[in-house]
Amino acid sequence: MTYTPTLTISNTQEYIPSVEELQQTVQSFVSFFIYFTLFALILLIVLAVTLIHFAKQWQNKKDSDEYLMHVIQAQEEERSHLSSELHDSLAQDLRVALSLVQEEKPHEIIKGCISSVRALCYNLAPPDIATEHLSDAIKSLCLSFQKNTGLDVSFTAREEALSLVDSVNLTPLQKISLYRIVQELLVNVKKHAQASEVSIIMRREDRGDPEGLYLFVSDDGIGFDAEKRMEADSSGGFGLRGIRQRAMQLGGNIDIHSEADCGTDVRLFIPEGKFSGRKNG
Q: Residue 117, Cβ neighbours under 10 Å: how many?
């Protein structure tokens, strides 16, 4: 039996798309890239607008902080000038009048006036804390306040807190701002609290709480209503607006808790990173 091979020829033909189909495919790709480009462009525009918005907000905040710093610095310069004028003119005139008056009653009145002027000069322009430790200046402030008001004032500063407030990295403006905050809080106690005791504590937290300086000022006075305090604060009452502004300038925040007949507790917190000898931002 003879095997005869067979040859099968397949009549298959490769598919070639038409011109119309090719045009539709090209148009689809072109449309995709157009839409993709438009989407990317819109996304970039939105991103650019967002960045510009945040940049403006940041610049406004920076300008506001710098303006506040200049305002505080101008206030301190004006206080110093006024203190010098009072000391050089009024205090000197009263001292001359005292030497001319021999009667006891006028003598005591003028002596009291001289003491008042000296106290005013000290409050307006405290000792040059730029060249001394801030803790020493605050301690002297507390002693002077206790002497003038008769209130029992206690000041406690832990060693770790002293390493911050007495740091050479503190600028003179940072020092005076901290000093003024304590001073204004004591003035509020004298004017409004009807307290018998004031406690001032400085400490530095590094366990659990954020690191930085914590300043606590508490009194046993009559306290005040929180809502009324907010109204007074918005209109500049009680000196709280200035205290908050100084705290903000230092990069910190201040919390005030008070209830009627329960005294007042004030907590100032300044992050450790702000004690750097330069404006942080």
A: 20
Mean pLDDT, range 61-72, rounded to an integer: 66
Over the stretch 172-189, which tens digit does the pLDDT of each residue have? 888 888 998 999 899 889
Q: Given a cut of 60, is residue 12 above it in pLDDT?
A: no
Rounded to an integer, the average pLDDT of 200-227 is: 85
Tokens of 110: 């003028």
Which three-class secondary structure state does DSSP give residue 241?
helix
CB < 8 Å & 24+ apart, contacts of 181-185: 181/215, 181/243, 181/246, 181/247, 181/254, 181/268, 182/138, 182/141, 182/215, 182/217, 183/123, 183/126, 183/141, 184/239, 184/242, 184/243, 185/217, 185/243, 185/266
Residue 279: the pLDDT is 44
